Amino acid sequence: MLAGIFVVQGVDALNHPDPLVARARRVTDRVGPALGNLHPTLSDARTLVKVNAAVMAGGGALLLTPLRRPAALAVAAALVPTTLAGHAFWEVTDTGERKQNRTRFLSNLGLLGGLLLAATDTQGRPGLRWRTGHLMSDANRSLHREARAAQRRVRAATVGAAIGRGMRRK
Question: What's the chain's average pLDDT?
Answer without folding.
Answer: 87
